Amino acid sequence: MLDTKPLILFFKYAIPSILSLLAISSASIVDGYFIGNYVGSIGLAAINISHPMLTILFGFALMFSVGSSVIVGKLMGENKKDEISNIFTKSIISISIIGIFLCLLIYFNLETFFNLFKVENILKEETLLYLPIILFFLPFLMTAIVLDYFVRVDENPTLSFLALFLSALTNIILDYLFIVKFDFGLSGAAYATGISYVIIIVILIPHFFSKKTSLKLIKPKGSWFNIINTLKNGFSEFINESSIGITVLVFNYIMLKNFGTQGVASYTIIGYLIMISILLSFAISDSMQPIFSKNYGARNFNRMKSFFKIASISILLIELLMTILILTIPEILINLFLKDSEQETRKITLEFITYAWPAFLFSGLNILITSYLTSIQKASLSAFIAILRSLVLPISAIFILSSIFGNIGIFMALSVSEFITFLIAIKIFMKNNPNLIHLRFINL
């Protein structure tokens, strides 16, 4: 990471990361395809009702993953080997215990959640076929995410790709068997997804017992308070994911109130399309984090600048391509997730796309800047951008714009919030770019 040519290293890390997240996103989209076509729009709505709680738990896993791997990456860059395995072990133990506790907490309070957000009748019944099963498997995913980040910071991105690819392939095959062949419906989708989570751990865990690894599972040493530093550094990722969950809750509530179950299903389809763009951008940003952090530790600021430039250009190209596809073939994309009879959901989704497409142009660069700030341990600035993008601006926009423009304002909220976030993020980045950081180190 410290001496390979930037473009070569970018492709070494970015390509496996992109392929990995493409595999994961394709599995999720295939979920949507099978559920939309074999269960119906009520099934899509049930998944989206479950989504907020899952993103909050996913955010906890990312907080440990990003926070601890960035610190370990910096320690590797500084050639400080003593604490590396200690931080790794404590992170794995912590996320496993927290994952089990949080999933149990949510499981025993599902009725409160349904009452709070007016989830009733058949939508509640369908959600209960899916969510409890996913909660059982989610601690496996949370642990797998942390393992995956450490595999990549230990310079084995290919294994990370293999684990996520095989997990996605398992999910797709089991979706077909459980939903189409055995007609298990939403329960089948939940079991398919859950089993695919376990596959990731099975593939990754041998890496940490190999001779080549720098990271070992050891008996934890010293105070556990040092794990707080990892949480602080990864807090922006938690804010980002959990805020998305809260925002989805609000959007679901508004869509349910204004458009009924078809509105929630429509928002789910939009979410699938946006997810592809965001995951590709996140893959590039995420693959750069260990590279940024190691070069930051080694004070290779010109290399950091080169990597940021390459990542920015790549993300812009992806965003432009996704925007073109959304604008030119929206009906083809929507039809992947709906039966021919779901005309009302199709109509709402097409109108939603008309006003939501500009979000694709700015979301990727916003994600890259927050990842960059996290990797140079500017956690508070990264968290500030993340909470603006994922919580404050979308929720503010949906209420303000809907009061001015009615239902159209609901559809505009995502685009407006991403654009405003972009303006703020660029200003913050310019004050913390590699050139200025270099000057600060020189002046110390």
TrEMBL record:
Question: One GO term of the cellular component aspect?
Answer: plasma membrane
GO biological process entries: response to antibiotic
Question: What GO MF annotations does this protein's record show?
Answer: antiporter activity; xenobiotic transmembrane transporter activity
Q: Where in the cell is it found?
A: Cell membrane
Q: Which Pfam families match?
A: MatE (PF01554)
Q: Which residues cross the membrane?
A: 7-29, 49-75, 87-108, 128-151, 158-179, 191-209, 238-255, 267-285, 306-328, 348-369, 381-402, 408-430
**Stored InterPro entries:** MATE_fam, MATE_MepA-like, MATE_MepA_subfamily, MdtK-like
Family, according to the entry, reads as follows: Belongs to the multi antimicrobial extrusion (MATE) (TC 2.A.66.1) family. MepA subfamily.
List the protein's name: Multidrug export protein MepA
Q: Which organism is it from?
A: Arcobacter defluvii
